[in-house]
Design goal:
single chain, about 625 residues, alpha+beta, Amidase signature (AS) enzymes, Hypothetical upf0131 protein ytfp, 11-stranded mixed β-sheet, 3-stranded antiparallel β-sheet, 19 helices
């Protein structure tokens, strides 16, 4: 089996161009890898797929590329997965309902565009039945394990599509997103999820959930790959009555220009604190706050907004007449064989049978008024940022309370298509239990590329590396792949800059003190962006002013250490700090020239940054 550092479009394209890889070699390797994954019974990984192409079928796709010019195919040899409510020629479509199964005579329009661009379909992925659910557990084909912990739900309804990307089985995947199905599973599995402008991607060949609201979504590991896929997938389909002309492509500026030096500041909306809901999860609230600080560090201006029009619109999706669309989409099979349905799915969809035309018009009038209010709010902003989901749930918790917890996951997602916005969900850190946290940026229709650019800049500003399990640590052992770093100021646990460590998957190792060889200083703030900072300066062993300073030692993945250090402003830097136990570890030190500034305070008598900030 071949070994690649990753399955990104850039990595695969470079390998193909250099001749070190062929599409046939890639699909053979992936076929073997997926087969091996499916034998890992401990994590139930076989539930990712409902139908996989055979090795022969994969090779047929790969060999087709041999006669084509790779330089003219932007997705040459790029593997992708397809949610099983989207047609792939000569493959079954089930929408996670075996009795609904049919074989597609042709591929969905969007799938065909990707294949024409050189992409290779690997198979059809698991989902919440008839795309009804945000939890990922409502399928007769099993529940895929979350990529970060089998204890937690994978998110839905595009569960398998998210997992195929998160577990490096494909480069990208297609899902659908009516109420959050392209964003919630992205957040729960630490990947990027694109909920495009409604109608931007064709829904021809897609089993409808709510036909007037459905969107085909895109999952990738990076915003850059998402942009490449969207450029191909967003092809206008005249056969789709809900398709829209692609202003997002014709009017978009190039990727990575949205936050360029020519546009150094931007404004982003945040719901009023009373309207944010983390469902009792204090960690999620902290992680979201850290994400807002990061956007401010990037040059953003935070604007608190009234989120009530968006929440009111969200309530219409399942409490209003749009449930009738789900009934219309499944009416025949629901009446002929109701036993074919997952019990929760049947309960939700059946509720749409008796809704009246009067209720539909009343809801439409209300939605129009809410649309006007929400558009007026967005006119003053570049985008609005929210958590993608306000908390996380275990499979056991969802089994005990399936309706309410599913509804909670839609708190920040259900309104998006009703109000016709574009949205991008992207990783933003980790909980202490190593589960990922994500945020969603949304803006008016046709702002897709700008939002992807924002996600790209967010990832570039502070790379979110795929998390690695925290190792077992002993006092005398630092495991391979982890770097110690000694911190003594705003990076301490719970303080203003601690997020720069936690979002790099760092772990607090121990609280201790330095050797009695240092003086301790408070450096003044720099503008509004850089708070007061501690300066640690080593002195001679016989210096009577030398003291021990209280510090913390964090372990950070080696691959994240460089990006952490690059954020440190002069006159601070990283050097070796001697601890009282005799160990020397990398840590914050101060260059002596900083003491020439008369505003620098000697706080050696405190020997503890927490004491200094409490006495300010």
């Amino acid at each position: 089996m071949i070994t690649l550092p990753d399955l990104s479009i850039t990595t695969l394209s470079e390998a193909y161009a250099s001749g070190t890889l062929t599409p046939s070699e890639l699909v053979r390797s992936l076929h073997e890898k997926i087969s091996n994954v499916e034998t890992e019974s401990e994590n139930n990984s076989s539930s990712i797929w409902i139908h996989r192409l055979s090795e022969k079928e994969l090779l047929d796709h790969a060999k087709r590329l041999d006669s084509l010019n790779a330089s003219t195919l932007p997705l040459y040899g790029i593997p992708f997965a397809i949610k099983d409510n989207i047609d792939l020629e000569n493959s079954p479509t089930t929408a996670a309902c075996p009795d609904f199964k049919y074989f597609a005579n042709e591929s969905a329009y969007v799938v065909q565009q990707l294949i024409n661009a050189g992409a290779i379909p690997i198979g059809k992925t698991n989902m919440d039945q008839f795309a009804t659910g945000l939890v990922g557990v409502r399928s007769p084909y099993g529940t895929p394990d979350n990529a970060c912990s089998p204890k937690f739900i994978p998110g839905g309804s595009s569960s398998g599509s998210a997992l195929a990307v998160a577990r490096d089985l494909v480069t990208f995947s297609l899902g659908t997103d009516t109420a959050g199905s392209g964003r919630v599973p992205a957040s729960l599995n630490n990947i990027v999820g694109i909920k495009p402008t409604k109608g931007l991607l064709s829904c021809t060949g897609v089993v409808p959930a709510c036909k007037s609201l459905d969107c085909v979504s895109i999952f990738t590991k990076s915003a850059k790959d998402a942009e490449s896929v969207l450029q191909i997938a967003a092809s206008f389909d005249p056969a789709d009555p809900y398709a829209v002309e692609n202003k997002a492509l014709t009017e978009a500026s190039p990727l990575r220009s949205y936050l360029s030096s020519e546009n150094e500041s931007f404004s982003f909306g945040v719901p009023h604190k009373s309207q944010l809901n983390f469902f009792g999860n204090q960690e999620a609230e902290t992680l979201f706050s850290q994400s807002l600080h990061k956007l401010e560090d990037m040059g953003g201006k935070r604007v608190e907004i009234d989120f009530s029009p968006f929440l009111a619109a969200a309530s219409l999706l399942y409490e209003g007449p749009w449930v009738a669309e789900r009934f219309v989409a499944t009416e025949n099979i629901l009446k002929q064989s109701p036993e074919s349905f997952h019990p929760i799915t049947q309960k939700i969809i059946s509720g749409g049978e008796h809704l009246t035309a009067a209720s539909a018009f009343k809801a439409e009038y209300k939605l129009k008024a809410l649309k006007r209010l929400s558009d007026d709010i967005l006119k003053q902003l570049d985008f609005i940022i929210t958590p993608t989901n306000g908390t996380i749930y275990t499979k056991e918790e969802v089994a005990e309370n399936p309706i309410e917890l599913n509804s909670n996951l839609g708190y920040y997602t259900n309104f998006m298509n009703l109000l016709d916005f574009s949205a991008v969900a992207f990783p933003a850190g980790f909980y202490k239990n190593n589960m990922p946290f994500g945020v969603t940026a949304f803006a008016p229709a046709f702002h897709d590329h700008k939002l992807i650019d924002l996600a790209d800049q967010f990832q570039a500003y502070l790379p979110i590396i795929t998390k690695k399990p925290f190792p077992e640590i002993t006092p005398d052992n630092i495991p391979d792949g982890w770097n110690p770093v000694v911190v003594c100021g705003a990076h301490l646990e719970g303080l203003a800059l601690n997020w720069q460590l936690t979002q790099r998957n760092a772990k607090l190792w121990k609280k201790t003190e330095t050797a009695p060889l240092y003086n301790f200083y408070a450096l003044p703030p720099i503008g509004d962006k850089i708070p007061p900072r501690p300066g640690v300066l080593r002195v001679a062993e016989d210096d009577s002013s030398a003291i021990s300073i209280k510090v913390e030692v964090w372990l950070i993945p080696t691959e994240n250490f460089g990006s952490f250090v690059s954020n440190i402003p002069a006159p601070l830097g990283i050097g070796k700090v001697l601890l009282k136990d005799g160990n020397n570890y990398p840590g914050f030190i101060c260059e002596p020239y900083a003491l020439d500034d008369p505003t620098v305070k000697n706080i050696s008598q405190l020997a503890d940054w927490r004491k200094f900030i409490s006495e300010k």
